[in-house]
Design goal:
Blueprint: H1 3-8, E1 12-16, E2 21-30, E3 33-42, E4 49-51, E5 55-58, E6 64-67
Antiparallel strand pairs: 1-2, 1-6, 2-3, 3-4, 3-5
């Protein structure tokens, strides 16, 4: 059911909740939890805010997750 998240581990994602979103590296999934590192809090009408440490999110609260395109070399 959550197999797609395994392919997103160690990639930059945007995790969307009902009232906010987090942009960060999906570092691990531990049971019902997602662990993000290098995180920015995204809220409507506000500039992104850097978050210290890790952010732990219950998967049940996640509305959807976007895996961001790699910004590696080329062009």
């Amino acid at each position: 059911m959550f197999a797609w998240r395994r392919t997103a581990v160690r990639k930059r994602v945007v995790v969307n909740l009902a009232d906010k979103a987090f942009n960060g590296v999906l570092w691990a999934q531990r049971g019902p939890l997602l662990v993000l590192r290098d995180v920015q809090l995204l809220e409507a009408g506000r500039a992104p805010q850097q978050v210290d440490g890790e952010v732990v999110i219950e998967r049940a609260r996640v509305e959807f997750t976007q895996v961001l395109a790699s910004t590696g070399g080329g062009g």
